[in-house]
Write a structure and sequence with these properties.
By secondary structure, this protein is mainly alpha-helical. The protein has helices spanning about 25-35, 40-50, 55-60, 65-80, 100-105, 105-120, and strands spanning about 50-55, 80-85, 95-100. The chain is globular and about 50 Å long. It comes from Pedobacter gandavensis. Keywords: DNA-binding, Transcription, Transcription regulation.
């Protein structure tokens, strides 16, 4: 009796297109939206504060350049993770908060945080 997992009459076929191409991988697409040095931290800060203003974000992330912060916020807004509300006041006031889809990222960030804590514990 043989222990082969391939039946002899069954041919090995290669799929026409693999499901892990750069444009088709769900993980790659997700990381395009929330990846980078600052985005997850921004999402976490905005979630903790419920609503955040630009100056508050800049103070909490003192290592980030103002231009970089602006770019990261625009990308998160473009991708529907945060929404930006500008008030017609003097001086101008702009607030950022998570959208419904942005809120769904919070458990993902928590899982990654837990994984990192476990990884650090196991590799020490």
């Amino acid at each position: 009796m043989e222990n082969d997992t391939i039946i002899h009459n069954q041919g090995l076929t290669k799929p026409e297109k693999d499901d892990y191409s750069t444009n088709n991988c769900a993980v790659t697409n997700a990381l395009k939206i929330m990846g980078g040095k600052w985005k997850m931290l921004l999402i976490k800060i905005i979630a903790d504060d419920c609503v955040s203003r630009f100056g508050e974000l800049k103070r909490k992330m003192d290592d980030i350049a103002q231009t970089t912060l602006t770019i990261q916020l625009r990308e998160l807004e473009r991708d529907g993770i945060i929404c930006r509300k500008a008030y017609a006041e003097s001086p101008p006031r702009v607030e950022y908060k998570l959208t419904e889809i942005g809120i769904t990222l919070l458990p993902v960030i928590q899982v990654l945080t837990d994984w990192n804590d476990n990884y650090c514990r196991l590799t020490k």
